[in-house]
DUF4386 domain-containing protein (Antarcticimicrobium sediminis), 234 residues
Amino acid sequence: MPQLHNVLTAPTPALLPESTRVLFTAAGLLYLVIISCGVWSEGIARGALITPGLPELSQKAITAAPVLWRLSIVADLTMLLADVGIAAVFLRLFAASAPVLAPLAFALRLVQAALIGAALLPLTLADALAPAQLDRALTLHALGYDLGLVFFGVNCAVMAAMLRGAGLAGRLIPLALAASGAIYLAGSLTALVAPGLNAAMQPAYALPLLAESGFCIWLMARGLRRPRATPSTG
């Protein structure tokens, strides 16, 4: 049976073997793909085409720019593939130091990806829908996204616990990830049961973006950092 990585119980960069640095770098790059694709697809591409509350205008915009609409869906699919990949990398990295939490984080991330992926199905028909049907499709997509973020919010809390348990990333990043998880949970639950409150907390989503960007940078920096050469003694 292959030996599991146990470097996360000894986080000194000089002790990281090359294979583990590769895993850290891969996780950072996958996180970069997730953040870039997610922000572009939802915030930029679809944000330019969808006018909330006015499905007629949204339908005209989508019909006029079908390539941009389809590319936004491709970007989401790329994000979800990267999510599955990073779930596997984190499972490998934390398997020894967090034998219970690591599989839990893996499962939570996969459920999130499955829900968001399913929520993309109505969007694939958007350019052929009448305005009223398009409004329902967008509502279904938003609902699927919010349901997925419930599981991702718990995943963030689990990741924070694993980082703290392994003595990694100091205090700020785990704390920021835990706070991000709370925001995702609060945002998704209010979207489902109290939409009025959800609208008021939209600015809070800036914290998860900053926290996950910082975590992404930390992962890549840790992976790319080379151990210092040990001076020879003679």
